[in-house]
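Inputs:
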Amino acid sequence: MTENNQFICIIIMTFSIIHCLSGVAVRDMPAWKMFKNVDRYEYLLVDCNGQKINIRDYLPHRAYSINQCSVVTKIAKWWATKNPQRLPLQGKIKIWKFDRWNEHHFRINKQEIQWY
Amino acid sequence: MERTSFSDQQTRNSVVLDFRKRSDRCYFCFYYLLGVVIVCQLIDDIVAGQGKIYSGEFFPWRQYLSVSTNLYWLVVTIEISLICCYFLRIKIQLTTVLLALLLFFDNLVSFLNHRLLLAIEVFVVGLSVPKNCEKPQLYWNLDLIRWQFSLMLLFTGLHKINAQFISGESLHNLFWQIENIGWRNYPTWLLSFLENKQICQILSILVICIEITLAFALNFCTTVKVSIFVALVTFLSFAYLVPHTWIFALQSTITLLVFFPEQRAKNIK
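Outputs:
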């Protein structure tokens, strides 16, 4: 094994370890966190015409990013920027926490999200 | 004997960090199977609608690089050309570096954990290539893949040590979501099993233990065969229970090849 190869080895492993460790500090860093936290939730998104919006229509069919409920509001905000003519967008998220459903309502109007 | 930067004494004492000599056949077996994973990943990306992320029709989840134009088909065309070069073994080192960079670029547009692992593996596999030698050679790059994979297993397990996962809630929710979306219709007996929170809790703890243990056990000569068997069962179960993860399972199964003991470097005279 040459010195150069050993150097490449050390560099790659160092970056890998930094990537893994940074995942502990940075919430959104992927760092092999597959299925670390999965939420149980139901949602309802309705545009100004009363038409339901399915967030899966805007994700690749295999996307597991849906397993955290925060993705609903992220997609809703993104959708709002794409379809300003269909605003305001009404949203309802039911999250299963501590053996019961907790309901949250929000409205998106011109990229602003209001919780109520 | 080929010289390594590790002294004999160091090699004797080191088990996890040892270097192993492998035949050219072993190298190419891994090389071509890895190529199959790249092809599967490309097909899966096309079918899943990766192009729509580039064009902005799909939500840019974990997008680190913004692409305004319909760049996707250019990326796909270059990737197909590089895959052809890869299988024909044309300039292996250059091809693997370019292919890894392309996979990495693709990952900046839409992140997938196993695509990142694939990019690393493709990059590393080309760093040291066979020189048509009959004797087993020291493929340090395959050892690097071994450590990288072990590191991934270790951190996958460590990140799961949190109250939500240990309580079994994450797995319970995951199976509920999979059923709810309609991705998989589990048999009734299995569904009743997976809907039981206590069983999910046991399963969660088992998953953490297996992942952390495998990260080490796969590297010890005495435990490697049992570990490979356990890893195989784990990956296959995972592919069945969690739909759309079959490429990761396939990739992980193929990566197990580099753990298979041929000869430790110190035993080669």
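Remarks. The longest strand of chain A covers residues 100-109. The beta strands of chain A are 41-46, 89-97, 100-109, 112-115.
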